[in-house]
# Entry
Amino acid sequence: MPWIPFRSNRISNENRRRLVRMNPFVRQVKLRCKELEGQGVKQWRAQFEALRSNWNSPAHCSYSKYFVDATALAVLAANHCKGFQLHDVQIAGAAATASGSIIEMQTGEGKTIVCAVAALIRSVFDSSIHVATTSDYLAERDYAENVELFHSLGTTAGLLRLNAKTHANRDAYRRHITYGPGYLFGFDYLRDQVALRDLEQLVLGRDVLTKIHGVKPEDSLNQLAHTTIIVDEADSVLLDEATTPLILSTPPTQQAQAVTRAFAIAKDVAQVLGEEDYDADPQLKRIQLTESGINRSYKAIRYEPKFHIDRPWTEYVEQALYSQQFLIRNEDYVVQDGKIKLVDQHTGRIFEDRQLRNGLHQSVEAKEGVQINPPNQTAARLSRQRFFRLYENICGMTGTIQGSQIEVEKFYGSEVLALPPHHSSQRKQRPTQYFATAAAKLQAIVESVRDEMQDGRPILIGTRTIRESLGLFDAIKAQGLDAQVLNGLQNAEESEVIAQAGQHGALTIATNMAGRGTDIKLDPESKLAGGLHVIATQHHSSQRVDRQLIGRCARQGDPGSYQFFVSAEDQLFERHSKALGARLAESAEQNEFVHRDFGPQIAKLQNQIEAENFLLRQKLMQQDEQTDRFRSKLAGVVT
# Structure
């Protein structure tokens, strides 16, 4: 993509220099806006469409001139349609995103409108812009909020829906701008690959259809191009979810249906095995049968009627042990409507249509006593990294990308630009409190909530799991306090609840980032009481996730504060450093309170975990590159 003078750099000092150099560009845009503001929407539309039409003409002006004009027209249209003036940071953010950067903007700074304006600007230069959100609800909400803006400049827009008919989503892809949940873009690409594979097997028939009916292979595809994708919450999508592949499944075969009984039998066998029958590693999450376990597993089924299996029997037993030892209800999954639904470990939201692989999902169904559904068959698979690298330009926005600039640039070729807030932050940090046990921590949190609410101050409590949120709700309710609980199911109701979390006297308990992407507005009484107070019930393995929760308070110059509560029994220590948890517990006094500050040690542990995760993502990227080289060589041999 052509260079413009405010692309970011991974070095913080360089980032500041780039920000300084953005000022002339923003001034140019505002000056151009003044020159055009006397015109009406019809004139703006005509000029915007002329920019799009003339861009590929041999006589077009310089890229910089087109970019300034496109940005000015998009800003004017946004000001007109939204009824407010975009401020300098929003103008800079939209332009930087449209130029191919991933921007960091603080919560509440207006990322939704910045994303829309960026998509508009980019539509001058690309025929197809995909806007990927983190959920169906947010895609629909953001599309509805901005479709009038797009149409005002003659730009077509479409929305992908999960359960829409094929032709409806295909039509959405034919628009200039297409909104949709990020995963749906990936699955539609996989569906296209399966369709192309089927067409390749019918070369003669395809050619005949083309000659007789004018049918072209691309007519049956969803996605015709991968030019630009704008990714909302880019850190979560491009980094946290990078190790979770996209898998397109097909209905189970008759053989797969026949193996369901094996999972129920494996559950019963696993329950009678002793500690000497298997080796369990909680940190690596590995289960392996010992020799005695293998022998007992086979002896346990010697009198069982014949049943079907499609892999070694010991694998069924190990999966059953894994589900019993490592997968926790209301933490890793929930049971709803007689079905097992997975919980997103990064956001706390519930996946409606995702399953554990390799029979593990069926092992959990057997464990919970719900109907065991046969495993689906894999039709196509793709890493998320590989999918996003299909695009010529990967850009986006998030509130927490700093610290990951090198990885983003290396893996995706996108630079990171951190933008300053429009208003200086008034956020205050309370000292972290440490405890030897989870019970002592819970008691302290309840006491803190009771004290804070005496003045009617709104409180948002961020928990890591659904199970933790329910336990905290019960403890708070026992004190005569009322709270709203959000358990991660992202929908309009959740957003309405989280939007009210800043009202005077509101007490909200939310799993991790439930309601992420929704504005929390303070009423006047809440501001006088000190603003929203965020309580984090434990540290996460990623500092970015901690910052996401903290960012819910003190938005747009509002007052606000946050505080962490930590116990030696937190999952961070249980899974990643029992030694650090033990040192914390040993430092406790008789009341189980710890006066020593473990903040530096926790930050070091989080950095170590992030480094390990980076190496894992790097390994996946290398595997993708090896696959690409192999396919290129194979294609050369075939041709």
In short: Residues 429 and 562 are 5 Å apart (CA to CA).
